[in-house]
Amino acid sequence: MYQVKGKIDSANAPEFEKDIMAAKPSEIDAAELQYISSAGLRVLLKLTKEVGGVTLYNVGREVYEILEVTGFTTILNVKKALREISVEGKQILGRGGNGTVYRLDDETIVKVYSTEHSLEVIDRERAYAKAAFVAGIPTAIAFDTVKVGDSYGVIFEAMNSDTLGHAIENEPERRDEYIMKYAQLVKQLHSTSITDGSIKSLKELLIKRAESPVLLDFCTQSEVNVLKDIVSSMAECDTLVHGDLHPGNIMINNGELMLIDMGELTRGLPIYDLASIYRDLMVGSKSSPETTARSIGMNPELCIEVGKKFFAMYSGMTDPAQLEQYLKMIGLIFAFNVVLLIPDFPGAAQRGPAIIKNLMQPVVMPNAAAIKHILSKK
To answer: What is the overall mean pLDDT for the chain?
Structure first.
């Protein structure tokens, strides 16, 4: 990344222009830029017109104020320098595939993302959380993006309690109350639509996955054709789908449940959220009990109990046989989605073939017509 340092004024602006126009960078690290005059700004304006857009990273407070006063924050894509914090000795509230949530103090928590997450991904999650909040979904307010060692983090407003998973585990006398609130939150999400394009389409995302050539490393061409046919028949839907709605991603604030992880938010069929809950509570608790306990905050046996109660409360079903059939339907969507996700799995080359073998021929292929029928209806 091109770096600018020190002070840029009328005295050295010609040399600055010569160097930067030769490099023509679209991304500039301004961490060591102390001052820039109007002469330097004119050089950046010229560069912007030449390359079609410039992003300034790590902009300090004083330089940012200059850019803001002159209106250059609307001309350039300006990223402020990130504050650095430490989470050493801080309480861990939850841990998942995307990162770890720590309590900083009584007023704030921080979600520290795993190192492979870029600022672009984190900014997108913040934008999704804002869109969901405006739409009426109870989400934690994101205050600031920070650096935590080699990783990035987002500071959120404080929650007065722990995660929903820990509350369910530690307060058995309130277990049914919490599960009912859980079901109500999910139903609220699934009754909320966003049509302005601010949230990506689940169907479009799945189409890209089904068309990925990497799938052929795990499936035959005929199997891939079946996957494509199912996806192409999916109903279009603008309701919100969280994608990772397990109790470890939900906080309790003064008795209200609030979502803290919006990175996988899409617009699509609600059954996809139910499939992710089925994955975490009903399947993950058996296949990966230690990981489940760490990320959700509940022991595996409790996860299954909570899962059954959640689906009963969400669906309103009281007949055990009817509920069992309902869970089988959700399990089919879970299996189908796992197959599409294989190329994105860490270590897919090692674990992918075995997962495909256990799901594609025994589950997905014999039930392809049923899966297609389920996903073709809103």
So the answer is: 90
pLDDT digits (tens, 9 = 90+) for 68-115: 999 999 999 998 888 889 999 998 887 776 788 898 888 888 889 888
Question: Alpha helices of the chain — where are they, by DSSP H?
Answer: 13-23, 38-51, 61-69, 119-134, 164-170, 175-189, 202-210, 221-232, 271-277, 284-287, 289-296, 300-315, 320-341, 348-359, 368-375
What pTM was estimated for this model as a whole? 0.79
- What's the Cα-to-Cα distance from 334 to each of 91, 185, 284, rounded to whole Å? 33, 21, 12
Long-range contacts of 300-308 (CB under 8 A, 24+ apart): 302/168, 302/169, 306/168, 306/175, 306/179, 306/247, 306/281, 307/277, 307/278, 307/281, 307/282
Decide if 90 contacts 103 (C-beta within 8 A). Answer: yes
Q: How far apart are the first and last CA of the chain?
A: 47
Contact 79, 58 (CB under 8 A): yes
Are residues 265 and 243 in contact, defined by beta-carbon separation less than 8 angstroms?
A: yes
From residue 41, alpha-carbon distances to 56, 69, 200, 211, 287 in Å are 12, 12, 35, 45, 57
For residue 137 the two structure tokens come to 């979904």
**β-pairing, 266-267 with 240-241?**
antiparallel
CB atoms within 10 A of CB 5: 11
DSSP type of residue 178: H
Q: Which residues neighbour 11 within 8 Å (Cβ) at sequence distance 6 or greater? A: none
The Cα 319–Cα 337 span in angstroms is 27
Q: What value does the CA radius of gyration of the chain take, rounded to a whole number of Å?
A: 24
How far apart are the C-alpha atoms of 362 and 340, rounded to whole Å? 16
CA distance 121 to 264: 10
**Separation CA 258–CA 322 (nearest Å):** 30
Portion of the chain with pLDDT greater than 90, in percent: 62
Q: Give the β-pairing of 77-80 and 55-59.
A: parallel
